[in-house]
Amino acid sequence: MTVHNLYIFDRNGTCLHYSEWNRKKQAGISKEEEFKLMYGMLFSIRSFVSKMSPLDMKDGFVAYQTSRYKLHYYETPTGMKIIMNTDLGVPSCRDVLHQIYSTLYVEYIVRNPLCVLGEPLQSELFTSRLDSFVRALPFFSVRAA
Amino acid sequence: MARQSTRSTDSKKMNSELFTLTYGALVTQLCKDYENDEEVNKQLDKMGYNIGVRLIEDFLARSSVGRCQDFRETADVIAKVAFKMYLGITPSVTNWSPAGDEFSLILESNPLVDFVELPDNHSNLVYSNLLCGVLRGALEMVQMAVEVRFAQDTLRGDNVTEIRMKFIKRIEENLPAGDE
């Protein structure tokens, strides 16, 4: 089991943060392009999924998986979106993503008055804490499954 | 970068008098810096707004409250969870308009005004106007445009402090411009 990469988008679709761990193959497009397409896809999936829902949805879209990887999605009511790609063996990551939001993003970015909200995150402290947090996850392991 | 690493998200005890006095000092300074009370009210609202847009993230992180289904639920969460968490009081929610888009928060006590008496030359000052800004900013971040104002204030001789909130509209999310 392993974690491939992680995106954080704000409510306007700006990619605030990106980091990757065991990502062996790149998409072959520029990162900007990738962020834009990722956000666009999520935006469409999200709205279509809730249109298709037979009942009013609470959490909406949470994850999808392909034969190779699994995308975990978490969104706060303020529109912050955290996306983590892992391989298939990883169970639901909602709690993990919520923790990234509440113990890392809110703690180191929102509570830091010098961090401007809505701009790509510059905080080294945040980046390094996030890195150690992800590396410490039980399903983070360099041995690809 | 010497910050303690594992600060929990539990609410911390803090001296409420220090908080009250700090707020007092802030308002006093604004009164010195600006000519008239309206301008001070506006500044307080603006500061509150900037606090609100950040505070909402903190609130969501701590409270694990999800998206509200309707404005009534929002009112309840504001009164019972948010006010309790940040000011230690639980205002009552009353005076709903028939359409259900407007309500009042009645504050039995307002910790911001514990030591305050408005001088005569500041009759137009809305001392706790920061709260309006906070509420407006926080709700805007969860896609709700609201109008918030003080309807009654114990500082001006009313029996209770009343914050009136009016729902204006839902802010729709849009795909950022320039995206195909």
What does this structure look like?
The complex is a heterodimer of chains A (145) and B (180). With 145 residues, chain A is of the alpha+beta class. Chain A has one domain: 2-Layer Sandwich (Beta-Lactamase). Chain A has 3 helices and 5 strands. In chain A, strands 2-1-5-4-3 form a 5-stranded antiparallel β-sheet, with helices on both faces. In chain A, a hairpin with a 4-residue loop joins strand 3 (63-65) and strand 4 (70-75). Chain A is globular. The model of chain A has no long low-confidence stretch (mean pLDDT 88). Chain B is α+β, with helices and mostly antiparallel strands and 180 residues long. Chain B has one domain (16-116, 126-173): Trafficking protein particle complex subunit 3 (Muramoyl-pentapeptide Carboxypeptidase, domain 2). Chain B is built from 4 helices and 4 strands, in the order H-H-H-E-E-H-E-E. Chain B has helices at 16-33, 37-63, 71-87, 130-141, and strands at 92-94, 102-107, 144-152, 161-170. In chain B, strands 1-2-4-3 form a 4-stranded antiparallel β-sheet, with helices on one face. Residues 1-9 of chain B have low confidence and may be disordered. Chain A binds chain B through residues 11-14, 36, 39-40, 43, 58-59, 76-80, 98, 101-103, 105-107, 110-111, 117, 125, 129, and chain B through 1, 3, 5, 7, 9, 53-54, 56-58, 60-62, 64, 66-67, 141-143, 173, 175-176, 179-180. Chain A: InterPro entries: Longin-like_dom_sf, TRAPPC. Chain A: Belongs to the TRAPP small subunits family. BET5 subfamily. Chain A: Keywords: Endoplasmic reticulum, ER-Golgi transport, Golgi apparatus, Transport.
Give the secondary structure arrangement, pairings included.
The complex is a heterodimer of chains A (145) and B (180).
Chain A: E1 3-9, E2 15-20, H1 31-52, E3 63-65, E4 70-75, E5 81-86, H2 94-110, H3 124-135
Antiparallel strand pairs in A: 1-2, 1-5, 3-4, 4-5
Helix pairs in contact in A: 2-3
Chain B: H1 16-33, H2 37-63, H3 71-87, E1 92-94, E2 102-107, H4 130-141, E3 144-152, E4 161-170
Antiparallel strand pairs in B: 1-2, 2-4, 3-4
Helix pairs in contact in B: 2-4
